[in-house]
Queue: 3 jobs
Job 1
Amino acid sequence: MITVKNTLADVVRDYPQTIPFFNELHLDYCCGGGIPLEEAVKNTDLDAEKVVADLNEFIAAHSAKTGSQQESLERFKNLSIPDMLQDLEATHHVDERKYMAEIETDLNKILLVHFVHHGELLTRLHHLYGTLKTELEEHFAREERLVFPLMRSYPQPNLEVLTLIQNLEKDHSAAGDIIKEIESLTDHFTAPADACATFKRTYQLLEEFINDVFVHIFKENSIVFPEYAEKAPSQEELDRQVEVTLEQEAGSNSNTCGYCESENGEEKSPVLFECGNCGALYCNDCGETGCPSCGASFSHAHPLEYSGSSWNPNQD
């Protein structure tokens, strides 16, 4: 039974069939989905208790979870993280790029044709949409070329990847703010009475596009990123990674094992290893089972040899 204390994201995660319900009420379950229902309806004319009652009735009436969107979310939740990332790129990234190109063409047409009667509206919409399109295109590039490959390479998150993910979530919030402006400006995609077919089609495409973006952001914010973050080392281990990074930047850890402080390798081992995951330096004895800092295996380590005066990459 859903209560006013449940967050919108939790409801959609457990009951994907509720997406149309929240869309109809213009409640943000993706970027703003982390807040309870009672807070989500504040500053609206909705009554929290009535929304919850209607929501529970809706869930009961749609318990079969049928429909492509619901089935897609159910399937998505059962994927591995690498498969989730692949799915996001193959579906939302592809579909939304197509939407953006088509909407841009139509929006430019109606801006020109209807400028005399709706110039203020369409000029503002054109600007907001252009900003949203630019931010999403750059966001997709960061995901596809930087963050997603790192997530695949490091099944156990390190501090760098977690920070990059936090930045992606900030991108989502920024996109959500623009979308709210677009929804308000267009009266939730209600075309003017004198709108032509292209005008109406542009609004319809915008609504479909934004609904897809909502599901896209929800999948990342509420499913993929939390599940990936659960695999992160403990806070103590993350703090140690920060210490190692600071030591390296200060130059104090350039030729010593970070755990036994062996300076030339003669006391412990003629080889140091640099962890490719967190950057820690450790000798063979201190890292018998892998990196003492983050636990990454030797497959992520780069051996360094002592040449008599300094440690250098092993060329073998």
Job 2
Amino acid sequence: MNDLSLPDVASQTQATLAPLDRVGMAGIRLPLQVAGQAVQARVEASVSLDTPGVRGIHMSRLYLALEALAGEELTLTALQALLQHFLDSHQGLSLSAHLRVAGELLLKRPALVSPLSGHKAYPFEIALSLDPRGFHVELMLELGYSSTCPCSAALSRQMTQRAFSERFAGQAPTWEALHEWLGSEAAMPATPHSQRSKARLWLRPADPLQAPDWIELVDRCEAALGTALQTAVKRADEQAFALANGHNLMFCEDAARRLAEPLRALPDLAAFKVRVEHEESLHAHDAVA
């Protein structure tokens, strides 16, 4: 039985079989380390099938090469070497190799005022390819934040003015009376609408072997927005968050421009793209930029 030769159907040839741009596997689960954090990654690995007449590739070779990365810190240098291994294992068949790694960075973030903290997930994706033109890298990071509509805020302020006029028309109220009224529900007849929003950043490093610092990138972008989503909070944190939203009224256009500023300041980026989505609480559709 040990001498039995097992058939390799994938290596069969037929003159009419056309080449394929990408052949491989998707949905592979792999434990990795990213920025010092354990990540359960989802991986897609593929190579081109450039030789006419060949029926298929050797998928097990891609899978076993990926397994060698299990538990290791993810670096662009290691991923370039992995893609080269894909090609070496498919000599005569493939001219390009491709890899997509997706997961979530789980970072501990402090509350705004209190000593509380909690973990927040930041989805990321790394897309890579190696072909005769070179090594190509694109990174994606997703951030969550709150956005308060400037138009809705202006309309709410107008309603407060109207309520003030109705309450104190023809009067000269004392400081105490004004202070008491401002602390009542009557002084806030309307509130501006806010929504949970998200930004996706696509980044192309100037050096394809040098990724930006993920945590520094999160810090810079959240500081630019001013209203990052919170984790554990006390009332003081919630009040500070309300204040931050009031000081950072944003249309989706504003958010996109805010995020572009810290990205332009990063010297190790060759190019970037930003997409923001404000999941409207007023409309049944979203605002995007």
Job 3
Amino acid sequence: MTMTLIDQGVRNVANFRRKLKTCLEINTATESKEKSQLEELELFTKYYQLWKGNNVQNNNTYYSIPKFYCQLPLEEEILLQKVREEARALFLQRRSRVLLGNEELQHLWFLLDKHHTPPLVADEQMINYHDFLKVAEQAGSKCKSFFTATIFGKLYQNENYGRIPIMQFFNYVMRKVWLHQTRIGLSLYDVTGLGYLKETDLENYILELIPTLPRNSQLHTWIIKGGYRLNILERSFYSFYVCTAVRKFFFFLDPMRTGKIKILDILACGFLDNLLELRDEELSKEMQESNWFSAPSALRVYGQYLNLDKDHNGMLSKEELSRYGTGTLTDVFLDRIFQECLTYDGEMDYKTYLDFVLALENRKEPQSLQYLFRILDVQQKGYLDTFSLNYFYRAIQEQMKRHKQEPILFEDVRDEIFDMVKPKEPFKITLQDLIHSGKGDTVLSILIDLNDFWTYENREYIVLDGSKEEDEIYKI
């Protein structure tokens, strides 16, 4: 008994010594770590002051954070708003003064023509870098930014004599000047001054742009000639035209529906080019009809809207919209349109209709695929599965039966869709899968429109018939 107590006491003492040793080691490690951190901080402070000098200690500004954010004036702060607007206007004026004017551009062309480097290449004047610098010296300070080695290198296309085309360089300069001018013009409508335009801002810009577009100045004449029989004055159509034009910008540049678009995105997208090319009075009829911003195109869309509006209440019901196009859109798809899109008492206004038209007329574009994908994603899972595909395809089968056609099995269509898209995750088609496959427009079309499904299903016969017709034409 005594020996047992002694052994137990010895073990307790041994355990205590081990624990004490461990604690001492931990404390020592902690102290050494803290000591090394202090030494590191002292060395950093020493060398920082050595390299920066003693101004760090003597100058009080080093101990306060400078103001880098200024809050926008509130609505009731009218004076501050006026001051801010005036400051922005002066800034934009200064920016516009450094741009090349017409006379300066003409002078630049004269210098390029004078100092071109022979020989000509297919009647096109060229210039080497040496003469390029000569022009830079005489062109003036406003042109200095264009005469750099970087720009010359960008335009150089491995020409035998190390030259670039004069016309190509001049077009580059004019394009840059136009972009800066347009950016300044758009910035004048940027009420907040934060680099983006709201819907009302862009509407004001386009409204004031209409008189400068000869092709759109006679909207009333186009209405009469187009046969739409719209008993309205020319200016009364402006609001519908502006709405039609603005919707394209916002549909493609604001897919997340934030209600604003960056000015840089507007400049980069190319829509302004399409809009401003209407200033060309010699623009062909075909070019006008294919240009969304032209009067004929706007009147076509608006005329379709009026033709669909049978009860003339200015809105479209589901039944009225069902006659859109070939009238073969499925009821299930139309139901989803009215569930997901903004409606008023179950009816669609002109602005919502424009989004609908833009999506269906540009189905290959990612923004259109996003619009249609949201409609087809019934369960809002972020992907289309077998249930989603079957949900919409059943409506196609019903339409086929209605037209006394033999419906195709869903399993066959499902397998073909998955083969076309090849989704990353089996049997789950995401929006990115549709975009990357390059077949997104086909997949969505055959699920929402009987006519598109029939066209796809009979594509081989259509191609054969087309080739036969061509052969007959050549024989004639």
